[in-house]
Design goal:
Distance between the termini of chain A: 8 Å
Helix content of chain A: 25-40%
Number of strands of chain A: 5
Order of helices and strands of chain A: EHEEEHE
Number of helices of chain A: 2
Shape of chain B: globular
CATH class of chain A: Alpha Beta
Bound molecules: flavin-adenine dinucleotide, iron/sulfur cluster
Structural class of chain B: alpha/beta
Strand order of the largest sheet of chain B: 3-2-1-7-19
Strand content of chain A: 25-35%
Largest sheet of chain B: 5 strands, parallel
Radius of gyration of chain B: 22 Å
CATH architecture of chain A: 2-Layer Sandwich
Largest interface: A-B, 16 and 21 residues
Oligomer: heterodimer
Distance between the termini of chain B: 45 Å
Radius of gyration of chain A: 11 Å
């Protein structure tokens, strides 16, 4: 089972809480943009949920029926 | 061993900390009854945008919502809005609501947040004077920001200066009054506070520092602030941002001093059996020692909620705690200011990266050669690296090399 991650780039304000909570999934590129992996494994869902809780702009969506 | 899991958890306070605790309990597998009581007429909403996007007019009011009704219903979290809790019977595990109705709990989470301090002057019922804590406050203030309005801000803290920033960005005349000659300095140090005040000055904010507000003039509506040197600051809109006190009135009278927040251990438990405390109301042990007190920042509320929702379902011996590392961000004219850790008396501040004049820099708060906190300006994406470095107790030179 996998899940799908999306970040609304219109909403994201580069707070970096997701990079801290789920570094395997989210990172900042050298130019400062947020990059992330769209498909995550079951074992990574909890970290992405932590990132969702900690994201101050509620920019992260996670859907499990992917 | 698992703990005796309560059949009903009641959360008092339907703000960020209360909601995240309830959601965390469901994530952790709690399948009992979950009730969240909130005094406000709204489902849980977010406060940081109240002094930012809502005042700038870049967000509609409904974007501040923290969870859609169907998300709450799906998680079987019963949020009861408009319900104020007036009393606690710790031995009887019972709450009293303003309606007089009693409500029993197996476990209770106190998440009532904080309330603005009483105004230090008599507003004599004049219109045009505002607090900024609730959604209604922000909407009223946004409405009052009409073309040509003169804005006076009382208190040069984070909220006061954010309001000043929003008002200037909307082209309004802004004066900020603060009783201290060096506002923000205790929190940010002289370099950080100086940079922030200079930024505001360069954008046209007038500061009246070392001055107290003694009264207001006007009939029906406010016309000016009167300062302690007798001078006046003409104003059509006044915002008071002088800090908050924990909302603990309803917890008084049980032999626990709650004036500086509901005291909690580093696991989130309180002196009352089966009662936990999270967010702005909760006085957890302070980072690096010092008396317990609330950390009135967004991320702290979410982190405590995460920890308490897990601990509440654990046996006492299995409860965890985390070493606090306070974090706060604040936005001014589109420039992000972020503080990790806290500046303590005796800390040295060192520029580890960038240029203060260019408003792109990182200051390290140093103690015994290690960086225990940072202030960063205009460099949002440095945050994850800085946090890891501070957690690891790196030196200022290490931080410079990292950035
Ligand atoms: C304008 C503004 C801007 C901010 N900006 C930032 C920022 O940029 N960065 C940052 O880190 N932090 C910021 N903060 C701080 C952050 O919003 C708070 O730390 C956070 O809201 C704390 O959440 P909480 O749930 O503990 O308290 P609250 O959000 O205050 O929620 C508590 C809730 O409990 C309710 N309540 C109180 N008493 C009772 C009762 N007896 N019965 C029932 N309900 C009750 C209250 O009505 C309230 O809805 C800002 C705060 C404000 C006001
Ligand atoms: S935490 Fe949220 S706002 Fe911050 S970078 Fe991640 S998605 Fe963007």
């Amino acid at each position: 089972m996998t899940a799908r991650v999306t970040v609304d780039s219109e909403v994201c304000e580069l707070h970096g809480q997701c990079v801290e909570a789920a570094p395997e999934v989210f990172s900042f590129a050298a130019g400062g943009q947020l990059q992330y992996r769209e498909t995550v494994g079951d074992d990574e869902v909890a970290a992405v949920e932590d990132a969702q809780f900690l994201c101050p702009t509620q920019a992260i969506a996670l859907s499990r029926d992917a | 061993m698992t703990a005796a899991v309560p059949s009903r958890v009641v959360v008092v306070g339907a703000g960020l900390a209360g909601l995240r605790t309830a959601q965390g309990l469901r994530r952790a597998g709690f399948d009992g009854e979950l009730v969240v009581l909130g005094e406000e007429p709204h489902l849980p909403y977010d406060r940081p945008p109240l002094s930012k996007q809502l005042l700038l007019g870049s967000w509609d009011a409904d974007r501040v919502r923290l969870a859609a009704p169907d998300v709450l219903a799906g998680a079987e979290i019963a949020v009861r809005t408009g319900e104020r809790v007036t009393g606690l019977d710790p031995a009887g595990h019972r709450l009293t609501l303003a309606s007089g109705e009693p409500l029993d709990y197996g476990a209770l989470v106190v998440a009532t947040g904080a309330t603005p301090h009483a105004w230090p002057f008599d507003a004599r019922g004049l219109a045009g004077v505002h607090d900024l804590r609730r959604l209604e406050d922000a909407l009223a203030l946004a409405d009052a920001f009409t073309a040509g309005a003169r804005v006076a801000v009382v208190g040069a803290g984070f909220i006061g200066t954010e309001v000043a920033s929003a008002a200037r960005q909307r082209g309004l005349e802004v004066t900020v009054v603060d009783a201290s000659l060096h506002p923000l300095e205790a929190a940010l140090g002289p370099v950080g506070a100086g940079a922030l005040l200079d930024l505001h000055r360069s954008r046209g904010v007038t500061f009246r520092l070392g001055r107290r507000v003694t009264g207001l003039t006007g009939t029906g509506r406010v016309e000016a602030l009167v300062l302690d040197d007798g001078s006046r600051v003409p104003a059509d809109v006044v915002i008071v941002g002088i800090g908050v006190r924990p909302a603990t009135d309803w917890l008084a009278g049980h032999g626990v001093d709650v004036r500086h927040g509901l005291p909690a251990e580093a696991t989130g438990t309180t002196p009352f059996p089966d009662v936990w405390a999270v967010g702005d109301v909760a006085a957890w042990p302070a980072a690096g020692g010092g008396p317990p007190r609330p950390v009135e920042h967004w991320t702290n509320a979410v982190e405590q909620a995460g920890l308490v929702s897990a601990n509440l379902l654990r046996a006492p011996a299995e409860r965890r705690h985390q070493e606090p590392l306070p974090y706060v961000w604040t936005d001014h004219y589109g420039i992000r200011v972020q503080q990790l850790g806290e500046l303590r008396a005796g800390d040295e501040t060192t520029l580890v990266h960038g240029s203060v004049a260019a408003l792109e820099f990182v200051l390290g708060y140093c103690r015994d050669g290690r960086v225990t906190g940072t202030l960063s300006v205009g460099l949002p994406t440095a945050f994850p690296k800085l946090k890891a470095a501070v957690r690891a107790g790196r030196s200022p030179a290490d931080l410079s090399a990292l950035l």
